Amino acid sequence: MTVSLDRALELLLKYRPALYAQGRLAFDAPRPAAWALALVGTVLVAVAVTAYRGGALRVGSTVGSPVRRRAHPLLAALRAAAIVLLVVCLLRPVLVLDAAVPRRNTVAVLVDDSRSMRVRDFDGRPRADFARAMLGSASPLRRALGEQFAVRVYRFSDVAAPVDSVGALAFAGDRTRLGAALDRVREELDGVPLAGVVVVSDGADGAPSALADATTALRARGTPVFAVGVGAEATGKDVEVRRVEAPRRALKGSTVAVDVVLAHRGLAGDSAAVLVEEDGRILARRAVVLPNAGDAVSVRVPLPLPDAGLHRLTVRVPPVGGEPVAENNARDLLLDVRDEREQVLYFEGEPRFEAKFLRRAVADDQGLRVVLLQRTAEGKYLRLGVEDSLDLVGGFPTSRDVLFKYKAVILGSVEASAFTVEQLRMLADFVSVRGGSLVLLGGRRAFAEGGFAGTPLEEAMPVVLERPLGSAGSDRIPATEVAVRLTAAGAAHVPLQVAPDERASLERWRTLPPLTTVNLVKRVRPGATVLLTGQTRDSTRGGDDRVVLAYQRYGRGKVVAFPVQDTWLWQMHASIPVEDMTHELLWRQLLRWLTADVPRPVEVVASDDHPAPGETVELRASVRDSLYVPVNGASVVARVQGPTGAAKDVPLTWSVARDGEYRGSFVAAEAGPYTVTATRGGPDSAAIDLDAMPSREEYFESALRAPLLRQLATQTGGRYYTPATVGSLPEDLRYAKGGVTVTERKDLWDLPATFLLLGGLLAGEWALRRREGLA
Predict the structure, then answer these.
(1) Cα 512 to Cα 548: distance, rounded to the nearest angstrom
(2) What is the pLDDT of residue 26?
(3) Confidence of residue 57 (pLDDT cuts 50, 70, 90)
(4) Which InterPro entries match (predicted)?
(5) Is the same domain home to 498 and 569?
(6) What is the CATH number for 427?
């Protein structure tokens, strides 16, 4: 209801509409007098109706005139309504209200002390200015509250705490936990006559489930909440970094994808720059044109990682178009770059150039070691890159502990019959249970041509196996030339960026020579992503498209299908310059992507990589044995080392609800870096780094959330106010039925609306009688 309408109704009805909603109607006339008045009123109404029907009230007119007879019912109704209204007034109607006893009740006032109250959208001033002006010791509202109630003022952001003066608030809270603040006040004032709770806030709340529980508890106690919304429901021009996603860890020398989601208001068509920075130094940049209002835009920024160590990065968008809120233009992330060498097992079923050039492509990469197991004859193998002379001496691993030490497995042109059924199951589990990556290359003995249809490995493949073109290893299988092209997903896939920038990479893919395939792969499974396609140049096949590179998640790992047999042509083709690094770069980036996030036996994650100082951090560890079977009931401890170097042990307990999962928590008491190392009493451990710092969360989606505050007030029996309507708060609190109350009765017989209505009825009757010649 608008302010002007509310005031107009108060003029007509004597009291504000909110009081009618709180009270109930009654009559103060004694019962005998009430019955007598009702009887007299009934008689008078009957006389008026009879008189008009019988024509007794005619003056100087012809009896039975049709026009006048049609007016008689309306005249009778007007006279009857006037009589009834007079009788009701004589019955002395009253509005019965439960009013708080002055100075006997308490009102708790919660003032939002978070950083979002610094947003300057309250008539060009910070929202905090309204809180100071509204609740300052000399303000009319504070004086009015103090005349009726004992006022207790609390500040709240993550928790509530009493304060002596609103003027002392710094408005620097990192998180808003309205539910926790309401619970704190309810518990602290338990047993105190509480008339109501006043919340002055912009409605930001980081824990909606806790707010729902707090609302239920207040409603059960009968304590209403009166919410005062501060700020604008639309903040004008604004761009916001809504979400940032990047790998938690990567190998030194890799290029990773930083996925950024931007939202904006009022900036459609404007250009913005997405920057990835470290200590103020720009590491990567990507330009973007903002779409229509309300549409989010995703931006993928390739980020090279030349140095090992923990990188504290900031993803930032410089302010666009004079934004009033620039604090939501950035988000922080941590990236652990490790100087390690990951092992990849490459099993090739026959001597061919693909194995030779693939190993050569990654030979100088200090982060990768490709171990080649190449079958040279039945039961004989060439082993290159093994750590021990006895490694793989019997061929492909027959035990899980041997296979699971690798991060990725590449299968070349090797038929399904080269494996036992248990080895095929083990390969599928290598992906789904261990979380490793599997690459399936094309060849005469691969895919359907290698007899993999119906095997345990088929289900893991991202492609659908068609009818084979020939028997495994047959020289009669025709090779089909395909012109390789990037899909839209492939163009955005960082491992496929083979040039310094996106435009140059697209151009390079367009000029690469064609490859050949002997595998008929045209369809992918639901959920698979196609990165490269190939168009055949065989006119007899009509130039149909083939799948060249596709992948899917399978359990905890990834499976990649690459059904071509000669990527080495991108190194040795006559059109490729000697110094060209496309082939090397492609395989290095693909294998780094596939090995970067492969899980270890012990993994630990935190609820927030950037907790605010003083915030509780939830830890969750996943514990598995060497065969990656979940371990329950183990003794798992997380050692937390804080900014000062002091360490403490946090026990993690088995969650019971999930196999191998352990949980615990600690408080990040100080700002600065934390290292959390989880162990289970053996050599296996996992470490993560956190960085406690003041949070920017308060500035994200920083517009006034009026619907949340209205819902809070409605569900507890209170009201919602704006700065323009908050003046009625003291009176509404007085009649909110909370605390110690006394009954008040307010007369309704003398309402201005009553006299206006009575005068209108009598004037209407007179005017109608005059028009009909009955006056």
Answers:
(1) 14
(2) 84
(3) very low
(4) Class_I_gatase-like (IPR029062), Filamin/ABP280_repeat-like (IPR017868), Ig-like_fold (IPR013783), vWFA_dom_sf (IPR036465)
(5) yes
(6) 3.40.50.880
Helical axes 3-13 vs 752-771, angle rounded to 10°: 80
Alpha-carbon distance 368 to 414, whole Å? 23
What does the DSSP assignment read for 104-155? SSEEEEEEE-BGGGG-S-BTTB-HHHHHHHHHSTTSHHHHHHHHHSEEEEEE
Q: CA–CA distance from 448 to each of 374, 441, 527, 531, 574 (Å)?
A: 21, 12, 21, 21, 32
Average pLDDT, the chain: 88
Q: Does 648 share its domain with 712?
A: no
Identity at 296, one-letter amino acid code: A
3-state secondary structure of 609: coil
Q: Please indicate, yes or no, if residue 202 is contained in any of the structural domains.
A: yes
Pair (591, 477) in one structural domain = yes
State which amino acid sits at residue 109.
V
Closest by CA position to 472, among listed 444, 503, 491? 444
**HEC states along 159-193?**
CEEECCCHHHCCCCECCCCHHHHHHHHHHHCCCCC
Instruction: Find the distance separating the first CA and the last CA of the chain, reported in whole Å.
Output: 43
Q: pLDDT band for position 568 (50/70/90)?
A: very high
Number of domains making up the chain: 5
Q: Read off the CATH number of the domain in which 181 is found.
A: 3.40.50.410
Q: What is the pLDDT of residue 10?
A: 72
Task: Summarize the confidence of residues 413-423 as an average pLDDT.
Answer: 95
Which of 540, 574, 596 corresponds to the end of one domain? 596
CA–CA separation, 264 vs 118, rounded Å?
20
List residues bridging with 676 in a β-sheet.
640, 688
What whole-number distance in Å separates Cα of residue 750 and Cα of residue 753?
8
Per the structure, the complete domain to which residue 146 belongs is given by: 102-234+703-739
The percent of the chain in helix, strand and coil, each rounded to the nearest 5, is 30, 30, 40
Tokens of 140: 């009319």
Type of residue at 743: T
Max Cα-Cα span within the chain: 133
Same domain as 447, residue 321: no
pTM as predicted:
0.76
Determine contact, residues 431/559, Cβ cutoff 8 Å.
yes
In a domain, residue 336? The reply is no
Beta carbons of 695 and 612 less than 8 angstroms apart: yes
**Is the residue at 337 inside a domain?**
no
In the Cβ-directed half-sphere of 368, how many Cα atoms lie within 13 Å?
30
The answer to whether residue 125 sits within a structural domain is yes
- pLDDT for residue 63: 46
Higher local confidence (pLDDT), 422 or 209: 422
